[in-house]
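note to self — DONT lose this again. spent like an hour looking for the file last time. sequence + predicted structure for the chain T wanted, 313 res
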Amino acid sequence: MKNFLSLLFFAFLLSSCDDGDIIVTDFDFENQQLQWCGDLESHVLFNINNSLVNEAIAFRFDLDTPELRFFTQEVGQISIPINSTNRIVYRVFNGQVENSYFCNEIPPVSPNVTEEYRSTTGGQVIITTTLKNTVDHDGDGVPSEAEGMATELDTDGDGIPDYLDIDDDADNILTRIEIAVEAENSVNGFPDSDTDGIPDYIDADDDNDGTITRYEDWNLNNNPADDQNEEGVPHYLNPEIIDSFEVDTFRENAISRSFRYLVTIQNLTLVNQGGNGEQIRLQDYVLGYYDSPSQRLVLEPIPAEESEEETEN
């Protein structure tokens, strides 16, 4: 942590600032990971530092701000104006600050605030939203690049591209299960049980017995993997078993997503609340980032006829 107070007091000594003088400086918190709390009316993103200097910086914003789409499942960038409702405050304390400090409707009486700077109207807060996991979007163990993300490859034609599809071949056996099968042969490092040159996870008939894997579901529970012989070999991998049960229902395609929100501030002016009018101006300041909890997202398949209509149009 750069000792902001030392920088500030050093600036005072060098310039012999009179009341109202503007200090153009910068200050950083070593830990850039923000904390968050909120209620039905407002949210607070904040960072607390209790090393050398007990300090905190917070951005409190109103949920009714028109530009606000915070904590949505949208990758992109939004801008929130700094005003009397959406404001930034920097405080220095005479003791250690608890993480719950900004989450209380009424701040605790201890520790005491020894210095406080508040933002003036003007400037903006930029929130840039990105996906945290961009290597394996569906978490099935196959990298998104290998699943044809660049071309939106959709092996089973269900309208869900492979890199977002937890069952790439629609056989009701999850991709992460199929890539873990022990097989003598493999293709590109993935099991190929019937040695036909097609990895099991994109092969609709894994044992090449003429009965698609989805139909080798003896107990009709949308999971052929749990129908096995006494030796524990699944029927869908046994070419001698060709019993077929027509199954036209599919497992839910639910993936887990987490987002990173990078918070930057442009043209920020902070005014000392002690009555001396001292100001701090920051043109571009990285407040930090917040990682959202994992969110469950269900992707619905698109019926073949609808997919064909979209292609024609």
